[in-house]
Amino acid sequence: MGEENGMGEMEGRRAMAVDQVARENVYPRPLYSHEDVVKDRALFMDSMRRFHDSMGTILSIPVLGGKEIDLHLLYREVTQRGGLEKVILEKRLKEVVTAFSFPSTTTSASFVLRKRYLSLLHHYEQVYFFGAQGPPIPPAASCMTRTPKIKLERPPDASDLTMKKPRRRKREHAETRGKESHHFTVTGSIDRKFKYGYFVTVKFGGETLNGVLFHVEQPGEASSSASVLPPVNVAAANGTPTEVKRRKKRRCRSSDPAHPRPSRSAYNFYFAEQYSKLKALYPEKDKEFSKMIGESWRSLNAEEKKVYQDRGVEDKERYRREMEEYGEKQKLQQSKEVTEEELFNAKNGKPE
């Protein structure tokens, strides 16, 4: 009976301490030493749960690549290097990522680990590693995700950041017609990168907005294909793999004027020759030309077909030669772009 009363009193004191922390908005006292939580994973998880309970926050184990992130390993690797701020300033976040042995397909590990550390372990680090007391200490500016400033013509609306581009253009024309432009600067964070830009979260006043920031290439860059979303090709999506591959190649050729003209077969040469003749003789029967030319081609003997087959072989060789030259030019262009990007990142101090 006395033991039960003692445990009840301990729980009561703990609840009072939690209420006091929530009321005063101050850090709770550490339950264990930093050395103890680093050595013992069970102590670490116990202290983490109690810490978040005291702060009035929820502890949820994040997932990356289909697996739970080991918060104990993350805390240990970061504090071994002097804390998150020092890791960021010294650009040692890749060393922390290496300790997790993520698969090569996980390209956003650095960003995700930093984001989760800030949300789940930053305040815990202040108390258990740095011994902080009193009001919570916000993360240093160097630890936050660097995001380009976005200028909007008016206070941001959630519908403005959707992927429906035609509607946005219509609103922009309506806003700019007969009105002065008022610029607002907002900051936020990049949640995830995709081929044509970024999924972002921005804060304006007391509102938090989620949306899409599209990448627009500067003049002189290799291609402008990333500045707009690609058209949705429902037929290609539902077609066979061969159809999808063929249509993809056709889009690539149409987007690059320098791409060599594809080779033509013997029948293509014969068709073009006969079509021009039939068009001059029977302009009103153009819908029947394909059938007429096909029957005519089948009636040719081997010697007659060989003339067009030789032309097809020559054109195929021409296409192979031009594609080799085109491939070399593409490699040089890509090498130049990579060098320019590295110089830009080094100059602007882009985070890892």
Automatic annotation (TrEMBL):
SMART domains associated with the record: ARID (SM01014), BRIGHT (SM00501), HMG (SM00398)
Region listing for Disordered, in residue ranges: 151-183, 236-264, 325-352
Any Pfam family hit: HMG_box_2
Ranges of the DNA-binding region feature: 260-327
GO molecular function: DNA binding
InterPro entries: ARID_dom, ARID_dom_sf, ARID_HMGB9-like, HMG_box_dom, HMG_box_dom_sf
Any single GO CC term annotated in Swiss-Prot or TrEMBL for this entry: nucleus
Alphabetical UniProt keywords: DNA-binding, Nucleus
ARID domain mapped to chain residues: 38-129
Domain HMG box span(s) in chain numbering: 260-327
Bias type Basic and acidic residues, positions: 172-183
Designated name of the protein: High mobility group B protein 9-like
Source organism phylogeny: Eukaryota, Viridiplantae, Streptophyta, Embryophyta, Tracheophyta
